[in-house]
Design brief:
460 residues; mainly alpha
């Protein structure tokens, strides 16, 4: 709930944002959160994951927490001091208004300061408190969005208008308000343990976390660089439309995220089982089946989803990216499943290498193709990057941790769903009768292929 519900709530804000903001303003909103994602990775420098690794093995767990708390607090303070003296230069360098930069700095500092308390709550298994505070954060954010972007304009409450001609600023104001509330709620954790910084422990945590930070930066590049390059190489209108339509692929993202939350602990808990590789193979096969069916459903009913979620027609020019991005995200989900090999064999540096490989593809193909074929180049670059990462991880995994994945069968399902989706999108767009029959035929084909195994499974 704490992870998936905020993403779902953010998705529910898409109709409000796209209806309220023109594509240029939505471009500003996207730019803000691209930079937020990038600097969040740098400011935490992989220490959250390192904390879990060392906290579980430490005899003095309070020292591990205190070391993380001090390290990230110093990181946030140094960042605040550094950017406060260079606000104008940074505003010009990043091509964002000074006010947006000030909001960004506030959000980044506050969010960095709460990383340690949130990690500590997870480590000591205070899951209800962790989830409650996360949900409070998203409720404040979503509530203020609806207040300023819907209630105030609808009922003419001019007294509440702070930025009457710059509606995108209300989104940033809502974010910083939610971050302040979260910080205040978690503030007691700064006084819950004696503050002691273990330098030797920090060096070990940093060495462990550094490859994770690099992989995180690479992931942000894969996920977000295309939007910044569209703004630079084309214009803000195109970038805003692309970013709005990109949100339609969040259905696949939510599915993948929900799956990972349950699957990753399962993978680690069953690693010692002799039949673990066979189990992992079955799990990935059914992940592909569900993901492929999900992708096909979204593509077939995309016209309905478009009118429900993106009501401003100026965004629709980028709708053709959605099938490509859906397939790209499905490839990313398969990659996350395959990546279990380097986590179980303590070869996490390979995760960094693979992510960097994907980042290079993202950069090269966006710079090369955007000037030639426009915004669709970014969608193809994302598909190529995640597809390459998936394939590379599969072949490396065969060497270090062989799993008998039914590759041919999974490839058949992916190919069938992709081809059926493409045929419907370009030949039978918005024809729901044909689309429904298509989905039924696809599911019937899967049942025919997996009938024996499904009967055996449900008869247990």
């Amino acid at each position: 709930m704490a992870t998936v519900l905020p993403r779902a709530m953010n998705f529910l804000l898409v109709p409000l944002h796209t209806q309220t903001l023109e594509t240029v303003a939505y471009s500003d909103n996207t730019t803000f959160y691209v930079y937020a994602a990038f600097f969040n990775v740098l400011l935490t420098f992989g220490m959250e994951t390192a904390f879990f690794r060392f906290f579980s093995q430490a005899s003095n767990k309070k020292t591990v927490f205190s070391t993380l708390l001090i390290a990230l607090s110093v990181s946030a303070i140094l960042f605040l001091i550094g950017v406060a003296w260079n606000t104008t230069a940074l505003s010009n360098g990043f091509a964002i208004p000074i006010l947006h930069l000030q909001f960004l700095i506030g959000v980044l500092v506050l969010d960095t300061l709460v990383v340690a308390p949130f990690a500590y709550l997870r480590a000591i298994e205070k899951s209800q408190k962790f989830a409650s505070i996360k949900l409070l954060n998203i409720l404040v954010y979503a509530g203020l969005n609806f207040l300023f972007l819907w209630l105030v304009p609808s009922f003419g409450w001019e007294v509440l208008e702070v930025f009457p001609n710059q509606k995108v600023n209300y989104i940033f104001l809502a974010n910083i308000a939610a971050s302040v509330v979260t910080f205040v709620v978690l503030l007691p954790y700064w006084f819950s343990v004696p503050l002691h910084f273990d330098w030797q422990l920090f060096k070990k945590m940093f060495r462990y976390g550094f490859p994770i930070m690099i992989a995180g930066v690479a992931f942000v590049i894969n996920e977000n660089l295309d939007k910044l390059l569209l703004k630079k190489l084309l214009n803000e209108d195109i970038m805003g439309a692309y970013s709005g339509c990109y949100k339609l692929a969040v259905f696949m993202t939510l599915f993948i995220q929900a799956f990972r939350l349950g699957a990753e602990p399962f993978f680690f808990n069953h690693a010692s089982d002799k039949k673990a590789p066979q189990t992992y193979a079955i799990i990935l096969k059914y992940f592909v089946i569900v993901g492929a069916a999900f992708m096909l459903l979204i593509v077939i009913y995309i016209e309905l989803l478009k009118t429900l979620l993106i009501r401003n027609e100026s965004y629709w020019i980028a709708l053709e990216i959605v099938p490509i991005i859906l397939l790209a995200n499905l490839f990313l989900g398969v990659y996350h499943n395959l990546s279990i090999w380097y986590k179980l064999t303590d070869r996490t540096r390979f995760g960094m290498y693979i992510s960097l490989f994907g980042a290079v593809i993202t950069i090269v193909f966006n710079l090369w193709l955007i000037p030639q074929i426009g915004f669709i180049a970014s969608a193809w670059a994302t598909l190529l990057a995640y597809g390459s990462m998936m394939i590379l991880s599969y072949f490396l995994g065969k060497k270090y941790y062989p799993v008998p994945y039914p590759v041919l069968r999974m490839a058949t399902y992916l190919t069938a769903a992709t081809c059926l989706g493409a045929i419907h999108f370009y030949a039978f767009y918005a024809n729901y009768a044909v689309g429904t029959v298509t989905v039924f035929v696809f599911l019937l084909g899967i049942y025919a292929m997996e009938r024996k195994e499904l009967i055996k499974f449900f008869s247990r």
